[in-house]
Amino acid sequence: MAKQEKMVDEITSMEEDFAKWYTDVVIKAELASYSSVRGCMVIRPYGTALWENIQAQLDSRFKATGHENVMMPLFIPESLLQKEKDHVEGFAPEVAWVTHGGSEELQERLCVRPTSETLFCDHYSEVIHSYRDLPKLYNQWCSVVRWEKSTRPFLRTMEFFWQEGHTMHETAQEAKEETERMLNVYAEFVETCLAIPVVKGKKTDREKFAGAESTYTIEAMMHDGKALQSGTSHYFGDGFSKAFEIQFTGRDNVLAYPHQTSWGMSSRIIGAIIMTHGDNNGLVIPPVVAPVQVVVLPIAAHKEGVMEKARELTDSLSKFCRVKLDDSDFSAGWKFAEYEMKGVPLRLEVGPKDIAEGRCVLVRRDNREKTFVPFDELETKIPELLAAVHDGLYRKALERREEMTYSVADFEEMKEKAATRPGFIKAMWCGSDDCELRLKEEAGVTSRCIPFEQEKISDVCVCCGKPAEHMLYWGKAY
Hints:
- By secondary structure, the chain is an alpha+beta fold.
- The protein has 3 domains: 18-71 and 124-277, Bira Bifunctional Protein, Domain 2 (BirA Bifunctional Protein, domain 2, 2-Layer Sandwich), CATH 3.30.930; 294-389, Anticodon-binding domain (Rossmann fold), CATH 3.40.50; 405-475, Translation Initiation Factor IF3.
- The chain has helices at 18-28, 45-64, 78-81, 85-91, 117-127, 172-193, 239-243, 268-277, 306-317, 332-341, 352-357, 378-403, 411-420, 433-443; strands at residues 32-34, 41-43, 68-69, 75-77, 96-101, 104-112, 136-145, 159-169, 199-202, 214-221, 227-237, 248-249, 255-256, 259-266, 294-298, 323-325, 346-350, 359-364, 370-374, 405-407, 424-429, 446-451, 470-475.
- The strands form 5 sheets. It has an 11-stranded mixed sheet, with helices on both faces. It has a 5-stranded mixed sheet with strand order 16-15-17-18-19, with helices on both faces.
- 40% of the residues are buried.
């Protein structure tokens, strides 16, 4: 495909400065603005609408798998946070503390929640008594606070928005099945709604969530070859249950500890959409979650019948898609650039000549392909084109990932690839923490995951040459 003409000059090209391109897109497309609170952002209406569509898709999947939404407190007493040693140590550097209420110093500090495992466990200790009370399949939508030193809109902010699922189960097997089931829910959502291909796998012990026995992840590749951890699911065993003295009477009439999971996906997934599908003209939003799926642009709106037809089309389209009519007095060229920047999947143009011929023009955002469609075929053609946009975005992202994924068999090749080729590196690993740390320090890569779909690249570890246990994806990450 020929290189596309650049329509939006205010956006730095990604080839020139990828980080600046990303920030330009966030700001110019009006997804978010910087706030007066360091490290926090204002998510603007367009960004909020995108997040709401993501929420709706995920929430329906959670409820279809039997989960219920709850709302937990914003604050966690310090004594509660201290109950699980590994968990509190993992989060200690990122915790924000409330020390005063009004002018009075609090007798006990309150943590502003960085995550809610301890709150859920405190509640579960009150409501779980028998095997009949299990499973508990809870989820909450909220914001959390982590005191980040370096921040970027959506990708890493001190306050961010997410969902966090927290479940309790009668047996370890049930909890492990839940952990993998929810990871699969995330993977299906990201691929079928966001058009982003992912690698599913398990985190190494070094990279797993604080307090978890095992952590599973979906990893996506961004335009610049860096990985973005896009959703995680954790199996905790009964560690939290013992720390919080959560017990239930089992079917054998003996007291037992329930087994726990948690899983989460945050608003950083919006950053994944931007960095997977965006181009030098701005956003490209997958149709399933796009705030506006079709924008109707009247051409020569001052001419007789044009605005009336545009309104008529908007009304009819609203029955089967999210549609917006732009009847402002800005020029057609300005509107083209504006909706390119905002990533609207389809643009519908209608002018005097189109009306005379009984048709309109549909233009795809992903490749600018134009299609002339009779008015009476729009109800069929628009869903077809929206599906084609999704498939095109997914195929393009998958091809890019395959082109930027490399297999290496020795340490020198690993260092060379990591230094010169952005992307994922597949290599064997012995399972040693020392080798993982050496690869991070000397090659500059972190382990992304032990993929469920294993390949045998060689028999030995890429780092130490000892017998290998797993093939891993390695890379640089956000």
